[in-house]
Amino acid sequence: MDVKGRPYPTTRHYDQRAKVSDGQSVRVKIPEGKDIVPQNLYLIDGFLGFATGQDDLAGELILTVERAEFETNQVKPDTEYSLGDQVYFDQTDEVLTKEPNDRFAGIVTNPLDSKGNIWFILFNQGSQTSGGSGVSQQAFDALKEEVEQLKQQVDGGGE
Questions:
Q1: Of the candidates 49, 66, 83, which is a domain's last residue?
Q2: Are residues 85 and 106 in the same domain?
Q3: How far apart are the first and last CA of the chain?
Q4: Is residue 16 part of a domain?
Q5: d(Cα 69, Cα 123) in Å, to the nearest integer?
Q6: 3-class SS at 58?
Q7: Which InterPro entries does its entry note (predicted)?
Q8: Is pLDDT of 129 > 50?
């Protein structure tokens, strides 16, 4: 619809927009018989994220899947985690492990502490395939570069 009476032509569009969310979380169905612990990491319906909201009546769960730095104690026992280590999600034990598998989770940014916690950057969601992380090499290299910069700052090489 053209709007008249303006010093420049203006057209208004009343179509719906495609964006429905900022993409930082997804709603997934809770698998039958699965107990959910708030703030724990889960791989459900192909999405790896932290449980933040649960609707027991609808059987749904909100997973936070944004690329951000998270703290967790869901780590494989008797494993040392250091800054820059690549971590993968072991769906059987529901822990992060350094052993490569089909689900790359991210890179450690704060090593294992005395309480058994690590900090890591949860990597972007992507299609996961057997035999690989399913993430582009360029995106992975960019994340590794960020972690290398963090290492330099920790070691006193940064500001």
A1: 66
A2: yes
A3: 55
A4: no
A5: 9
A6: coil
A7: Phage_VT1-Sakai_H0018
A8: no
